[in-house]
Amino acid sequence: GAAEGTAGILAENPILSSEAGFRRDAAWTGSQTSLAVRIEQPLDLLGQASSRQQAAGARVTAARAHRAMVRVEIAARVHQTYLAAQIEIARRALAHQRLGTAMQTEEALRFRAKLGASSDIDLHMAAAETGRARAEVSGAGISVARAMLHLRETLGLPASAEAWPGDDLLAPPRDWATS
After folding, report:
1. Contacts within 8 Å (CB) and 24+ apart, 92-95
2. pLDDT 10s per residue in the chain (179 long)?
3. How far is the C-alpha of 118 from the C-alpha of 142, rounded, in Å?
4. Cα distance between residue 9 and residue 13, in whole Å
5. Through-space distance between the first and last CA atoms of the chain, rounded to whole angstroms
6. How far is CA 2 from CA 56, 61, 130, in A?
7. What DSSP string runs through 13-42?
8. Long-range contacts of residues 151-158, Cβ cutoff 8 Å, at least 24 apart
């Protein structure tokens, strides 16, 4: 695999160096021109090649493990965002149901108040509950929009693309991240 390039005979590429200049020595009079050319080649001795190959193999294994971990983290982040969007949609549906119930209760109390079977206090409390339910529906709508935006960002979709989770409160398949 990726560590096979470490299996050569030579540990490194050869090094070529040269020197030129004047040399003065106390025993000689004057100066001499000197020229030296040197080629160096490190060699693997006493198991150095296998150690280098093992280290390269360990780096390759670590890189593969890191890549797998990153894939799992990305899948978990997308999974969490997907479920959060489904939860916000379910909360919005519950808020709509609560509003419907509050409106029916207010209407029933209005009718009872006309008949004299209920007080105005009950009617005003029902109206306040309807108002709270309307506010909850508005907040739930904002939460759904925020969750959809976050889902679109997590998936890397453009702003014009629509991202909508599938079935209500069903998680995506477990193997979708590895395929």
Report:
1. 92/137, 92/140, 92/141, 92/143, 92/144, 93/168, 94/140, 95/133, 95/136, 95/137, 95/139, 95/140
2. 555 555 555 556 777 777 777 666 666 666 667 778 888 877 767 767 777 788 888 999 999 999 999 999 988 898 899 889 999 999 999 999 999 999 999 999 999 988 888 888 999 999 999 999 999 999 999 999 999 999 888 888 887 887 778 765 555 566 655 54
3. 36
4. 11
5. 22
6. 8, 10, 66
7. --EEEEEEEEE--TTSSS-EEEEEEEEE--
8. 151/81, 151/82, 151/84, 151/85, 154/77, 154/78, 154/81, 155/78
For residue 25 the two structure tokens come to: 């020595």
